[in-house]
Records
---
Amino acid sequence: MRGRPNESQEGGTLLAQRPVRCHRCWLQDSAVIHVSLAFGLAAGAASLPPTGPHSVRHMVLKVQPGQSGRPIHIEVWLPAGRPAGRFPLLLFSPGFGGTPVDYSSQLEDLASHGYVVAGLDHAADLLDAFEPRAALWAQDLLAAKQMLLRSPLRGRIDANRIGAFGHSHGGRSAAAACLLDSAIRACLNQDGRLDDIRLLRPDGP
């Protein structure tokens, strides 16, 4: 059950912080990401600590709706304190019906290795098919990217190193976002469909 976060102000943007719950499903070694999907973990399973050199800060970024009118709810994991330099940004889209907190071990571990990880809790919609929903979620990811680059966290983000990834339907959506935006330079579709979603792309039909 998700508790009510403690809210604080940072640079005029409302942020909420809360403890991180961990059920590990990713490990990263240097620049190579080893994916080890771990489903069906018992609710009482022991949490594992992140494997990277950084301690991790978790916050909820509450922002105004994007141009589409859809609210954008972003959970962020990032290296704690004030380490030198900027960090790559990773945009994450969960599986359908899931939230970023369900993947907190994976996202926290990536942040411990020096990434700003932004997970989206996609708003509900009235669509009756997954292909248009993947396109819609892709637009959510792109809107979140722009909002983060204008947020108080922009000083922590390397805007030249942005990636997107997701699980299941979120992986399909992340792949669509990569097709739409050439500024996203790395992409991982984690157990999602591999079809080419019909999109209005700048480089083709």
---
Amino acid sequence: MVANMDTTGTFEMAEFVSQSKMFVCVHKHYTIEQWKAFIAKSPQCLPYVAASSGTSEADYEKLKQVISAAAGAIHFVCLDVANGYSEHFVNYLRKVRADPTFAKTTIIAGNVVTGEMTEELILSGADIVKVGIGPGSVCTTRKETVRAFHVACGMSRVACRMSHVACRMSHIACRISHLASRLSHVACRMSHVACRRAWATRSSRR
């Protein structure tokens, strides 16, 4: 997957790599007019691109216009901020997920580096989570914020958290299964009691 930086996530890159069925997150700086021209010129590329968006109201409206202009041919959107640890970003993700325009759209969201925040984004509507903050050789996040977190470290934390969640879900499933067995046993006993009462009533009538 080609990243959505303005130097790599371009229409030209999409036209090139889509020939090999590779995927591009197109950067968020193209105008709606440029998107419409690309959609008309290269419709064969659309299944292999994601339309990226920031979190402003203008970004939101443009994203809706792009998806509508593609008439269902673009199946992915990428909600991208340098640091996904904000309530505003989570609320924006929920807003996009709830919009009927994106009902059949796969949402990519990030960037985060911990399992807890990955879980939060998934619960808020993300289908794919971008892990890693500022690790790229040409990424400016590290220079602008003096902070970075390598993808491998982030993935390790996320995998640990997801493993913990899976264990908890497995434990819950076992408890539900045990409860179902007990309810089944109670139902059998009630059925047995009903049969005995029916037999007793029939015998008394005789």
---
Amino acid sequence: MSDINTDRDRHQKLLAALLDRLTLAENAVKSLAPTWDHLDDLYTGFRAVDDEDKVTQQSHKVSKIVVPLSFAIVQTIISVMFEVITSRVPMLPVTGREGSDVKPAQVMEAIISFQAEWNQFSVILYNWLQDYLKYGIGVTTTNWHTEGKEQTTTETVQGTQTFLGVDFPMEEQREKTRFVPTLETNKISVVDPYSFWRDPRWPLSR
């Protein structure tokens, strides 16, 4: 890394372009944050204590009742959509178009079902729907996930030993540690809209 010349024009142009895009993305999120904060307050039914509340709290120990209609509406929509998507078993059936496709389709269906279960897809789906209904945007990301463990094995290595100027063959036991994958799969995560920095010059669909 010490050989990289950071003064090169190409490097400076690339750095400037990346910083410009980061600034655009940051400003876009900052411009939306107040609206999203307000939507959060509507969703949770938050309201600040006003003068009338202070008077009634002092005189009668009560304040205005808050009915969280926005919360109820969002949760009702989530319940309906959640049931529609997850009620089938398997959740995403795969069928072949021809006889030769039947077995591969069954394998694909089993893999999708495993990945949905391993990723706790129900939780992912709930959080994604909640973001979408609250903020009008729901973001997910998929990464490749690998799990494994260190495994130590003993290997026999052929060598020689010199005695009185003569090489004699001998065997030597050596331990070797290597990483053995135990799981390789897709990992789905829900991205907080506040942390989703995108180029605002392009529509969300792209």
---
Amino acid sequence: MKNIITTLVVTLSLTLSFSQNKTLFGIKAGLNISDVSGASAFVDNEKLSRLHFGLLSELPVSEKFSMQLELLYSQQGDYNYIVYNGISRSSAIENGKPIMQKYEIDYLQLPVLAKYYISRSFSIEIGPTIGVMIYDSYKRALNRTNEIELSGISGLSYKFSKSFFGSVRYTHAITNAFREPKEYYNKSSYSNGKNNVFQFSVGYIF
């Protein structure tokens, strides 16, 4: 993880050094639609709608290419019904179905994105992001969530005017969201659990 952070810092430094034009600054906010996938303990889960907001800077490198750096507060999680080896841990039943439980994980995210302009207004974004866990209802309950997360981002952005823009992106975690618990029934049921987030944003460039 230290090597990853070092690489991101070096990339940022080089981008700042070679930036040819004025750096742009802005704000953004929008909707997160998230869930956790890949962990057998989390079955029958449903996506959770929450929010994100933060700051950004865009560093033009050429006419078609720039780097976009962001600092985001991202609210994530899902609705799920936890089972172990197919056996429910909850007896909460409503209309013959288990009641879904809401779990929330909030991250401070640091995306570093390469941005390629297909046209003057339309661009493609791709790059890594490091998430630092800020709040976690999983951890409060079972003390098993990793505090640092590495994810990959891909998305599209469109400028409605010189100042206003909208974007849509998908974030998929590369590292696992959870540590394997020592005190619970099936350790492997938490292996490979990863966060997935669709983000829909609007923003303003100053």
